[in-house]
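Batch manifest, entry 17 of 40.
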Amino acid sequence: MVISEAISYYHSLLDDDSARENQRLLDDGQQRAGLFFGTRPLATVLRPRLLTSQQYEHLRQVSELVALASRQARAYALEDPATRDLMAFTPGEDALLEIDPGYTEPSASSRLDSFFDNDTNTLQFVEYNAESPAAIAYEDVLSDVFMELPIVQAFGQRYNVRPIPARHRMFQALMDAFREWGRADEPRAAILDWAGLPTHSEFVLFRDYFTEQKLDTIICSPEELEYRDRTLYAQGKPINLIYRRVLTSEFLGRYGDQALEHPLVQACKDGTVCLVNSFRTKPLYKKMIFGLLSDPEIMDAAGIDRDTQTTLAKHIPWTRRVKPGTTTYEGQEVDLLAFTLENQDRLLLKPNDEYGGKGITIGWETSPEEWRGAVEAAQHDPFVVQERVNIAYEDYPSVQGGMLHIGRRLVDTDPYLFGTSVEGCLTRLSTVTLLNVTAGGGSTVPTLLIEAKDADEASRS
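Output type: structure tokens
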């Protein structure tokens, strides 16, 4: 099946009147379900991301290979002093990495952010969001809303359409970690992040879902935690399982020198709470993890076999820590800073530990003077330089000025991993290069799998 033909057929089912009606129903469905980032509805277009089963299987296989190799690189980085230095852990992060979480998986729930081009079938990853990936519940519920739209129902006359739910895998990841931790019989859970965040509506979706699964769950912030008599309390209730959404960098930044005395850290040290993800996920979250996975010398030392290295080279962009010295690029030794200055048209700079597009400088959208200044500044804080990847685009329908409009969007394809197993996928759209809803633009859409119906199936629809 050719995916472009399915997309064209989907768009052919819309006109101005049907687009307005579907938009109204989409808005109503999102309002009822609480599908908002802050006050902004998640979806602002009328088509879900459509993938074939073959495309999804390709995405799954490559993502799982990257996840496995990442864990090998992580283990090596924690043991080799020179490689560990490249990761640029802060003293606070080093201290938190020493805490045994009570279970083995370094990232029970994660997300790989990528561009997956339907036309060329290229798949290139740009980040590994391994610490507290958002939008799992959003995607599940948004899929339900889209599946009820008349346009999707009409499209379903010709194509089988199915969502890829993932909330159950998040629940299972929590339960698996809790059972391996094994220091209590009954879980009492909390979803932990700062109060007043625009993602609070997703915490509500998760709380309600976990409650349906018979897991008593509250939503709380770090300020609401108390630790006494070897029991952690949130809002006065004892808890022993935390679904952590608060980022380590923000936690350490907020509490400074007192962070290691915080009730959360004290409970983790004492082994009286199961924290998912644990603080040991940090090495996977650093942008420099792709520096390890694009450096043959480090991969050899980490025990990553040559066949895997060859595959990774197709999907992981060349990435290096910004610092004086030499490195390799396509097998040739180069002076890193000189190479970075001379090749801004194919490079970008990223903070080693940031999210939401913060602090990124895109070489091909920057003047030479600004680029030189950014490269100089990147030597004083932990930054990586990364090679430009092939950006994916698709046409998406929306209602603008009361009329149907079909416009070109950048498409981000972000599979979720539970351990090293893929289930579900976030899709984000944008009209600008920094494709991130957190950064203040774009749209989220559900990712649905499709296959063409045979003649008999179509006639029965």
